[in-house]
## 1
Amino acid sequence: MPERKNDLEGEYFSLKQLLQGIFSKLQPLFSTDCAAITLYQNDDEHIARSYIALRNCKGEFIAEQLIRDPVAFSSITREISGFQFPVLRSAEDWMAEFGNNHHIINHPEEYLYHCYIPLEANNRIMGTFEIHNLDQQFSSEALNYCCSISDLVSGLLTALQPLPALPTGEELLSTIRKQQAELEKYKKELDKHLQYFAEESAEPYHYPDMAGNSREMQQVFKLLDRMSSSDTTVLILGETGTGKELIARAIHQQSPRKDQPMIKINCAAVPRNLIESELFGHEKGSFTGAMERRIGKFELADRGTIFLDEVAELSPDLQVKLLRVLQEKEIERIGGKSTIATDVRIISATNRNLFNEVEAGRFRTDLFYRLNVFPIELPPLRNRRLDIPALAAYFLERFSSKSGRKINGFSKKVMACMMAYNWPGNVRELEHLIERQVILTEQPVITELAIPEGGKGLLAQHVTGEIIKTVMENERDHILAVLERCNGKVSGPHGAARLLGIPATTLNSKIKKLGLSKKHK
């Protein structure tokens, strides 16, 4: 049977021809006495145009007719359109429901068996495919074949649907105006979002590898931003482990010299008899063991940056030579006979109080003022405890990824210990402690903290009210400071919640919990 359907599809090209072909195929196969296609016209179910093929053996084609019996026709179409499969009716059922009102068939009472198959195009019922037999029931094979034929007719109806009328010039102009109004509306919304994101990106300040939403670190980040395009000499002050080298690298990476090298040297780690050679280089044979010429750090850093860590450890004679470099912009190798011009930005750092060193005569006053053009003081970790969770999370992710392990976080007890501990070694101590815990832990969450023996006394009361109160007081002071900075505003792009990196609802809850005055909100 499928081959017969394909023959029809290729052989006939119009609805009338298709119906004639259908009838010519159906009649010898199933003794079909009448076949018809009824189409709804102008979306009006009460007016239909029908193409009819009837006369059992002659296959005569009768021209199109109009059905204008609203009551009878609408009752037929309503019933058929509710089905997705053939609707069968006997002559008795037909006469009981519709009588002689169906004008497609002149004498419907003469046909004993009626079959109606809905025709669907563009997701709506377009009409019906009808078969009427005088005395032979419809076999299942005949019904299946008729359903296939109805699918073919439905496809043709879809193809024959008229294209929508083209809009007039006035309609096009009206549509364009509406679209322009919509575009203008979206543009204004986009401008608002862009302004919001610009303000949001301005604060808080963030730098790679440096976590810090605390007020103290935000001040440091602001200083870094203000000097981003300058070539100023910088002095970084802070305790051991506060991240002075990270700050120096951040300064270099956002400076005009970022494409040139940054050379670092720890002045305290190099023996006194070698530090001059490390800094300025030496010529071959200039001293015992100088088997070849050596380029010093200042020459290596030419057009770039040199980072002098622990600069306060330089001997007085080296302080004089460093002062000359700052003043004359030139160096001289050990054993050399001429000076070498150098273009270097100097960033120095120390964990000592240089004011005290100057007063004690251990550091030259003139060198101090040459180095102290733009000082940046880094706070110890104990003075910015609110940064501890972010720092701990950063180190945990780094070391767990490095070790190929999945550790999700810290227990509340461990976090309380970290918040209460005094951290004499600052961020570096926190980093090393978490690296050690990642190696030791066998659980998905770190539940123990291996505080060094010397620091356990600092944690003896970490669960007592006194220590917890201290942490809460630190948090309270920090929230108050941020609220004052934001003029008491909690939410919004300029609000304290955004600066603190927490939801406004959380901040309001903390304000209530910490007993802050309503006027701060």
Note: The chain has four domains: 15-160, 221-379, 382-446, 472-514.
## 2
Amino acid sequence: MAEEEFTIVELQEKFYRDGIKKIIIIITGVLLSIGLIVAALLYIYSNKPLPITFLVSQNWRVQADVPTNQPYLSVTDLLQWASDVIPKVFTYDFISYEDQQKQAEYYFTSNGWKVFLNYLKSYADYTNVQKYRQFISAIPQGVPILLNQGLLSGRYAWWVQIPIRINYAGYNPTPGRTLMFQILIVRVPTLNNLSGVGIENIILATNTSARSG
């Protein structure tokens, strides 16, 4: 009788041990599966392809990329683009300065952006904007004028002149400035730039800067 009880107890212990082992194996398998899923999701997220933009017509048909030696934009559309973009790239505030700067970079070629940063330091310097809690706005002071157009180093290009007014608001009152800029706009591939143009150079016309309170 004692032997039977011992055998029963031994069987029960073996049953529990086997059950615990199975539970541990199941839990380990579940944790490994979760780990693999998380790793896969992280890989997919970190290696997701960049978005691709492409031109479509009014009836949503995909249009081919326009060669950069062709104008792509009419003169009227180009001047309107310049009138919209130039004030926008000179508009900043102490709250969203970095985001606004990133958005402005979209309108420039790599060379044009380097040139523009020098003007940005002069007329919308990050340190001053933060220090004096500034809001900087820019508005056109007249219609843009087409100075010249044609092929430049294999790309179609336009020289455009536009006057703008830069106004400042903040802790430290700064006089507004009226500036006359001459802008070199060049064709860029339309694959990732739907406007098909970018600012390659920007020049401040001499003797045009004026300040007023």
Note: The longest helix spans residues 2-46.
